[in-house]
């Protein structure tokens, strides 16, 4: 059943972010760390967890960056399109996100239920994939599945924070092993640094672009149509077409890193 995350879900996600048990370090350099966690089942998708120390960016600012879809177009070069479909509650909505994969891989897209929670000076945003009757899979994309994805922004003083990003995503398609390795060893750290840089530039950008408009903070500003929870269902990976991309060449340039997923 589709459900809107409650306090227990948020606390469980926060615990996953902060607890080191069961995680293997894949990358640790310049304040950015990436871990992976193998799952019990052979077919299960592995979890990735990332952490970056963001100096000179407050937790509040980084939280705004992660919510602000208008600003996302400025910093997320892998994004093709993103939009909010509708709202469920004052702190939950349904949205769409598509992102570029390097040729000849097909581009991916998601429909997710997203929920967020400020906890004092810390912030959480979590999502998982759902099916919406008006947004079925498209022929020009591979519909990927977020089993569990989210951010935990932890305040670290008045003007500094630590950002955790945890994701368990089934990208569908029979992706070759080099793609999976590249995500954890190169693409993921680069994506985290991109968010950090976006945080440094956001206050100046926001001053010039509707500085008082923050519907994620002020629910009365939210003009999205309402979505009924009954119209949604869980998006299961085995219901989607599986594209065979296992023979893709390992050649990929550093600026063509559309394998990252930041939503």
From TrEMBL:
CDD domains: START_STARD10-like. This is START domain-containing protein 10. Its main location: other. It comes from Pelobates cultripes. Residues 240-263 are annotated as: Disordered. Residues 1-204 form the START domain. GO terms for cellular component: cytosol; membrane; motile cilium. Gene3D superfamilies: 3.30.530.20. It is found in: Cell projection, Cilium, Flagellum; Cytoplasm; Membrane. One of its GO terms (biological process) is lipid transport.
